[in-house]
Write a structure and sequence with these properties.
266 residues; 6 strands; alpha/beta; single chain
Length: 266
């Protein structure tokens, strides 16, 4: 998950693939990752998970005033949903205000263990070490991926999550195990298994959720890489593939190598 990003006459930076969950197994970072993090002057994350961001996320998940999720889904689908969300500590009176995409995310994500997700942990460590912080996206840009989906598409994704919930939960665990092995190929394959049953919708979502965001991230990452000694942490799914960050960085003339490679690529 950790890659050295280097060019001649520039101090090296490092790109680290994260997984956006609160799980002690993924937050127990190895010494190589911690060493590169500690020596970095700048920390770049997708967004900065400060209090303002958390409040913004909460607000963005809510339907506009006067709209209600039970009316959008119908009683039968909403009752199925509210039963599952109630197991996650959300009452029907709370879930009725969620946008369909927000309900899908709450339903699909692994249960929190009551602490920080990995990206949030890195953010707080960065603050404590007085690192310069940079965001590769705004909150509005990140959430627009879901908000821009047609209402019917949001409902389709939510229904898929309900229909295949046991499979989703099993795949989430397999995704964590692939992450712990450092297997980007398997992470990509497992993530594809989590896609919607609607192939056309799945392709559109993958393009906006990963490919288009990668183009913005690389543009905002480059000035930090030119200065050097940056530690860039983004979701691991942004790394592999033709449109992934690793390949996009190579196209920008960077050598992208394992962190402990001893032979110069130049």
């Amino acid at each position: 998950m950790l890659w050295r990003i280097s060019k001649p006459q520039q101090p090296s930076s490092f790109l680290f693939g994260t997984i956006h969950i609160d799980d002690k197994r993924v937050k127990d970072l190895d010494t190589q990752v911690m060493h590169r993090f500690n020596e970095a002057k700048t920390l770049c994350l997708e967004i900065l998970p400060n209090r303002e961001t958390q409040v913004g996320i909460g607000r963005a998940m809510l339907l506009p005033k006067g709209q209600f999720l039970d009316e959008i889904l119908g009683d039968r689908l909403f009752n199925r949903l509210s039963l599952e969300l109630n197991k996650r500590g959300m009452t029907p009176l709370e879930s009725v205000y969620l946008k369909p995409w927000a309900a899908m995310i709450v339903l699909s994500r692994p249960q929190s263990q009551g602490g920080y997700a990995l990206d949030e942990q890195l953010y707080h460590w960065g603050i404590h070490q007085y690192k310069q912080l940079c965001a590769l996206e705004t909150l509005q840009e990140q959430l627009s991926v879901f908000d821009s989906l047609a209402r019917d598409d949001q409902v389709t994704l939510l229904k898929d999550s309900l229909d295949f919930l046991p499979v989703v939960q099993e795949l989430n665990e397999k995704l964590v195990l692939a992450y712990l092995k450092g297997d980007l190929d398997e992470i990509y394959r497992r993530s594809m298994e989590l896609q919607s049953q609607d192939d056309e919708l799945a392709k559109r979502l993958m393009n906006s959720l990963i490919d288009q965001r990668n183009l913005k991230m690389i543009e905002r990452m480059l000035p930090q890489l030119e200065k050097g000694r940056a530690f860039v942490a983004v979701g691991a799914l942004h790394l592999p593939g033709e449109n992934g960050l690793l390949n996009l960085l190579r196209l920008q003339g960077y050598a992208v190598t394992p962190p402990d490679l001893k032979v110069s690529p130049w």
